[in-house]
């Protein structure tokens, strides 16, 4: 895989990781305020984004990045 491709994949991974962290932080705030409906939505979306980031990280490692 070309270096440029790996670099863009790493940037995407970092962006997804940051997004997942933001979502988990908002999830925690929603739980603390008793807004369980929003908390559930935030957690499920954070889990999906985190899983996507993990999968991307695996691809990057396998390609020697």
Labels describing this entry:
65 residues; mainly alpha
| Helix-strand category | mainly alpha
Query: What fraction, in percent, of the residue positions are helical?
Result: over 70%
Evaluate the radius of gyration: 15 Å
Distance between the amino and carboxyl termini: 9 Å
- Please mark out the parts with pLDDT under 50 across 5 or more consecutive residues, or reply none: none
Q: How large is the count of helical segments? A: 2
Average pLDDT reading: 96
Shape label: elongated
Largest sheet: none
SSE pattern: HH
Count of DSSP E strands? 0
Percent strand: under 5%
Helix-strand layout with pairing:
Layout: H1 3-32, H2 36-62
Helix pairs in contact: 1-2
Describe this entry's structure for a reader.
There is one protein chain. This protein has helices spanning 3-32, 36-62. Helices cover 88% and strands 0% of the residues. The mean pLDDT is 96. The protein is elongated and about 50 Å long. It is an all-alpha fold and 65 residues long.
Write a brief caption for the model:
With 65 residues, the chain is mostly helical. The protein contains 2 helices and no strands.
